[in-house]
Amino acid sequence: MDKIKRRTFLKTSLVGSVAAIFTNSSHAEMSTPSEMQGPFYPITPQKDQDADLTKVAGKTGTAQGKVIEVFGQVLDQALNPIEDVSIDLWQANSFGRYHHPHDTNEAPLDENFQAWAILQSGAEGRYRFKTIIPGAYPISSSRQRTPHIHFKISKKGYESLLTQMYFPNQELNDQDVLFNRKSAEQQAMMTAKKSDNSNIYQYNIIIDKL
Ligand SMILES: [Fe+2]
What we know:
It is a single chain. By secondary structure, the chain is α+β, with helices and mostly antiparallel strands. The chain folds into 2 domains: 1-30; 32-206, Protocatechuate 3,4-Dioxygenase, subunit A. Helix content is 16%, strand content 24%. The protein is built from 2 helices and 11 strands, in the order H-E-E-E-E-E-E-E-E-H-E-E-E. The chain has helices at residues 3-29, 184-190, and strands at 67-75, 86-90, 116-120, 126-132, 137-138, 144-145, 148-154, 161-166, 193-194, 200-202, 205-206. Strands 1, 4, 9, 10 and 11 form a 5-stranded mixed β-sheet that branches. Strands 3-2-7-8 form a 4-stranded antiparallel β-sheet, with no helix packed on it. A two-stranded antiparallel ribbon has the order 5-6. Strand 5 and strand 6 form a beta hairpin. The longest helix has 27 residues, at 3-29. Bound molecules: fe (ii) ion (FE2). Fe (ii) ion is lined by residues 38, 40, 145, 148, 150.
């Protein structure tokens, strides 16, 4: 290697390793990307807001659709768990219809689906809820939103986070307008992890201190 080539080589590898260190440390500390709230944040008062969205208090039926559980931890950017975080979540039913008066989708309502929950993170920032896989829904004549769950995370002393959780291996993820505005790294952070042959998804949420 001549002198100039060698100098260039050293320079490139130094930049490469600094970039690698930076990428690793920033990955560990990157907070969950935010996403728009969307038009269907619940506005109809609802007494039952517990962690089982497949049942509605006072009704005997069960929500239609594929039952799943979602669990995770709420963490700060140093990956310390945060307790007593308010986790407000809402989603479409299995047909892709929101329990919201402004949803004009003609898909059926499901009176046995709770659609909205407000939970608190407990010990070690942990949370868990039972629900169904939300249906996709049309946003125009040619486009659909891929299945997702909306989250609003708040805790005194931290920045509030509005985001959407996606599901792995969903065909429509590739065509989803909002999902595809995110980088691959952001998409990975917004997509729940599923263990094989289970209906259990893990979704950790990282929020910023104020
Ligand atoms: Fe939505």
